[in-house]
Amino acid sequence: MGVMYENSGVNLAEAHKLAGKLNNLGGNFNLFSGDKLCGGLKISHCCDGIGTKIIPLYSRKLYKNIAVDLAAANLNDIATQNVRAFAFLDYIAVNELDSAAVSEIIFELKKILAVYDCELLGGETSEMPAILRENTIDICGFLTGIKKDTVYCIRDGDCVIGLTSNGIHANGFSLIRKLYSQKLLSEDEFIDCLKPSYIYYGVLRKLWDNNFIKSGANITGGGILSNLNRVIPQNCTVDLDYNKIPSQNIYKKLYSICGEEMFEVFNCGVGFCIIAEKSRLDDIFNICSEFNPFLLGKVVKK
Fold first, then answer.
1. What is the pLDDT of residues 204-240, one digit of tens each?
2. Among 111, 176, 177, 291, which one is least packed by beta carbons within 10 Å?
3. Which CATH number does 31-147 carry?
4. Average confidence (pLDDT) over 175-180
5. Rounded CA gap, 10 and 255, in Å?
6. Could you tell me which of 226, 250, 271, 257 has the C-alpha nearest to residue 79?
7. Distance CA 121, CA 110 (A)
8. Fold observed for domain 159-301
9. Distance CA 96, CA 151 (A)
């Protein structure tokens, strides 16, 4: 499992062990966001960063891309449930503070979040030369929303709809960077990988508001299947047809290098998955048309 990824510095097997241990805690630990009842409201929270994609983005001064990726990581996570985002905090750690660069990231982040009626309340910036390497930065976000307490029963025969990705998004970059350093990816291919992630939250809000869907999965680290399994009941699994995924050149290239391991690491062209009844397909395809939705598979009983 994940031999090339492990050689690039990421141990998927150990990550799965950790997930298994955290599952024993129960509650929300396997979901994309966690809930807490407060004053009669169900408050939902999530936290995410953009991994080592921030290394080439920061070194190439692609500060706006950093902001988009950070917003997408958190908004897409919270969009997997019927949650309306309203507040965001950021944490930025640097080796040496560059006020121009960091302020550009924060200003852009605030602007993006405002599009979705979510307010950037503030955060923390920490200068830590003893911990971070020279010219490096790390970033993560904390998103809070209000969850509508609705119950949807996922069952045998429900459809799995895929929304296409904008390439790699912000996952698997330890491997992407290693392949680039080994000249297995060209400069043009590497630049293509740096495109900002799609933000699906806006169309997902429309689907939730109209009761068109039952659940969603943000396809991040670990690939399509492992992320879908986080929202599928234990008595079910999914039957997927990867041939239905619209072709992207970067994944043709990655498959030629990584083989089947590609499916364990990357989104493979699917940025988000929706679970819904077959009768809702036309509505979902219409609302999500900008992301080229397609029928990826179905839910089946084990």
1. 999 999 999 999 999 998 899 999 998 998 899 999 9
2. 111
3. 3.30.1330.10
4. 96
5. 19
6. 271
7. 9
8. Phosphoribosyl-aminoimidazole Synthetase; Chain A, domain 2 (3.90.650)
9. 48
Residue closest to 8 by CA, chosen among 265, 301, 214, 218: 265
- Whether the Cβ atoms of residue 174 and residue 5 lie closer than 8 Å to each other: yes
Q: What are phi and psi of 276, to 5 degrees?
A: -155, 165
Average pLDDT over residues 119-145: 95
Indicate where the chain has its CATH 3.30.1330.10 domain(s): 31-147
Which pair of structure tokens corresponds to residue 71? Answer: 């917003």
| Total residues belonging to the chain | 302
Distance of alpha carbon 52 from alpha carbon 96, whole angstroms: 18
Q: Beta-carbon neighbour count of residue 289 at 10 Å?
A: 10
**Residue 2 has which token pair?**
């994940």
The pTM for the full model equals 0.93
* Residue 245 near residue 269, CB atoms below 8 Å: yes
pLDDT in tens, 11-57: 777 876 777 777 666 666 677 898 888 888 999 999 999 999 999 99
Q: Which amino acid is at 129?
A: P
Closest CA to 51 of 168, 181, 201: 168
